[in-house]
Specification:
- 2 copies of one chain form a homodimer.
- Chain A is α/β, with parallel strands linked by helices.
- The radius of gyration of chain A is 20 Å and the shape is globular.
Amino acid sequence: MPSKSAFLVPERRARVDAVVAGRTRTLTVVMEAFCDPQNVNAVLRTCEAFGVQEIHAVEGPMKPWDRNKKISQNADKWLDVRRWRSTGECLAHLKAEGFAIYATHLGEGSRPLGSLSFAGKVALVFGNEKRGVSDEALALAEARYAIPMRGFVQSLNVSVAAAISLATAVERREAERGGHGDLTEREAAELRERFYVLAVKQRAKIAKAERVAERRGGRRR
Amino acid sequence: MPSKSAFLVPERRARVDAVVAGRTRTLTVVMEAFCDPQNVNAVLRTCEAFGVQEIHAVEGPMKPWDRNKKISQNADKWLDVRRWRSTGECLAHLKAEGFAIYATHLGEGSRPLGSLSFAGKVALVFGNEKRGVSDEALALAEARYAIPMRGFVQSLNVSVAAAISLATAVERREAERGGHGDLTEREAAELRERFYVLAVKQRAKIAKAERVAERRGGRRR
């Protein structure tokens, strides 16, 4: 079967290839029992922008989040979002895969974000908007960290905290690992094919919308 | 008149003093015609956390934003938010005060955030959620910049972009200026007194709420 890339203009194919080259599965994010779907979607959008391919959502007392196109900018279409019923299962899986768990925590024993090492595989855990990261996650974490703040407000919005953490992680990975995007050739080839298919579908949708708009324009004349 | 600090416990007074020591008026943020009050409030919360004392809000086609306690965490209480009717007026004022204007822009001619200098006074301009920064602001800006992204989504949420920009600015200011908080002794003294008053009022409110809760608890017994 020929690659779907045959149906894409060279510019679009080059864009897919560039995005895949910037993707990683050795940095990941865990959203633990978020209650605001707006935060889930904002975090997904930031992950996509920073090349984080796999994200873990632990379901909490809230119902599964609604996709919100406006906020996520359809980011989840280009991501692997894994859902978990419990923090324990999710973190056990990540530990078995060799990830160090860094949990955001505003209490005692937290290190500043800037002091963390990103030389190895890292999973960043963000907690529920009100209660923060669970005791279970804290107990399983290799490190607790906080973003240094200097004002009266006690915390940052969780999507803001995730964004600052990811921007720092990318920078540190470039310094400590010599780069951020690091899929194996096989992972990259699989992802390219998947994205080519999505891009072709997207192109077809746009073309259809254009034809409809043209016909409507013609009728009005 | 004795200082209001006489009514504060030493820990609370020390907290006010520490916050004031971390405050600056040489880094500022301009929000140009935001349409989502949630974004305004999230940016205020981040500014407060990062010690940015003065923020400028240019009113656009939208109505003035609603204070949203949940999102801003009452951050604006501790800030100076100046409202402007037009971008031109706001940026002319900042230029006269010696600020270099850096406008976020995703188009051509934009430099990466990491290449900007924060050695002098800097105003970061963030644009409307849909249209971005206005042509007027771009024409007046010393530099256009963007946060490097590597995915398919074309932009970050504006409150996320502001947070990453501010975190970077604080770090660069520490490297380039030897520190972030830099009020003059007079500015600091004025702000301390203002914050002591606010902290005393806050303490009185909390005490009143505690007394009410105690009486209610008593009645139930």
